[in-house]
Design a protein that fits this description.
- It contains two helices and ten strands, in the order αββββββββββα.
- With 155 residues, the chain is of the alpha+beta class.
- The chain folds into two domains: 74 residues, Immunoglobulin-like, CATH 2.60.40.1080; 46 residues, no CATH class.
- A four-stranded mixed sheet has the order 1-7-6-3, with no helix packed on it. A three-stranded antiparallel sheet has the order 2-5-4, with no helix packed on it.
Length: 155
Amino acid sequence: MPSRFWLILTFIVAFGPTRAHPETPPKLLAVVLDQAIVAKLPAGASTIIIGNPMIADVTMLKTGAAMVVTGKGYGQTNLIALDADGAVLLEEQVRVLPARTVVVLQNGTSHVSYSCNPDCMPTVQLGDDPKSFNDAGGEISSRNSYAMGGSGGGK
């Protein structure tokens, strides 16, 4: 029995005491690539900061009570809200996820995406083969230009 006591004591000394109340993990906002969500802001928020604007974009609404978070690239970054005095009111992680309606065809190093909702049509996604990305992107740009009353520029 005494050897067990010394073993436990050695373990406690080696690894130290643990916290009775572990830190709460930061809140996670999940947003789909090329989509936006509206999230609440704490009262008094006057400034919002996004860690990596290539992953997500954030815009405070005029009322200051909410913000719009838009997924711009895959990955995870942080978001901080400050009050007028610079005190941190909110710290959250923002994770940008792929759309669930996208089917990816992989052929060797070639990567082509199709949006399937319910029919599959070519789409552009980060990581696509440059040729298919440019071809589909050009078609989308031409279509949008026609819809806005432009000449479209076609191929």
